[in-house]
Design a protein that fits this description.
Number of strands: 10
Strand order of the largest sheet: 1-2-9-4-7
Helix content: under 10%
CATH topology: Jelly Rolls
Order of helices and strands: EEEEEEEEEEH
CATH architecture: Sandwich
Low-confidence stretches: 14-23
Largest sheet: 5 strands, antiparallel
Shape: globular
Distance between the termini: 41 Å
Length: about 130
C-alpha cells in the first residue's frame, strides 16, 4: 500500500552514494525518486528511459549529458540546474570533474525505465 504522505527525514546528502534503500528511495506507480552520487570521471553507457520523463536536479558538482553518435551535443549542468530528458532520448551521462556529483533523480512514467543501447546502433542511425 502506498502511503499518502511520506517524508525523507534528515538526509545526509554529503555522505550519499547511489541510494536504493527505503529511506532515500521512493517509488510509486508512475514515479521514482532517488538521491544519486556519480563518481568523478564516470561515464554511463548509451541508454534511454523508455516512456519516462527524467528530471535531474544538481545538488553539487557537474554533470554532462551527451547526445549524438560522436557526442556532438554536450549539455553541462551545475548546482541549482534542473535538467529534463524527454522520453526515448538516447544519451549518456558523465561527471568530467575531479569531484563527485550529487543530484536528485526523478523519473515519471510507466513501464521499464532503463534501456541500454549498443553504441554501434547510435553511429549507424546518426543520432
Amino acid at each position: 500500500m502506498i502511503m499518502p504522505i511520506r517524508i525523507l527525514k534528515s538526509l545526509n546528502i554529503e555522505s550519499m552514494n547511489k541510494i536504493v534503500d527505503s529511506e532515500r528511495f521512493i517509488k510509486t506507480e508512475n514515479a521514482i525518486l532517488e538521491f544519486v552520487t556519480s563518481n568523478s570521471g564516470s561515464i554511463s553507457n548509451w541508454h534511454h528511459h523508455g516512456e519516462y520523463d527524467i528530471f535531474n536536479y544538481i545538488i553539487s558538482g557537474i554533470k554532462e549529458f551527451l547526445l549524438g553518435s560522436n557526442d556532438e551535443q554536450v549539455i553541462t549542468a551545475k548546482p541549482g540546474d534542473l535538467v529534463h530528458i524527454a522520453p526515448n532520448t538516447i544519451h549518456r551521462e558523465s561527471n568530467p570533474s575531479d569531484q563527485p556529483t550529487k543530484y536528485l533523480l526523478i523519473r515519471v512514467g510507466t513501464g521499464q525505465s532503463l534501456f541500454l543501447v549498443d553504441d554501434r546502433s547510435i553511429r549507424s542511425t546518426g543520432g
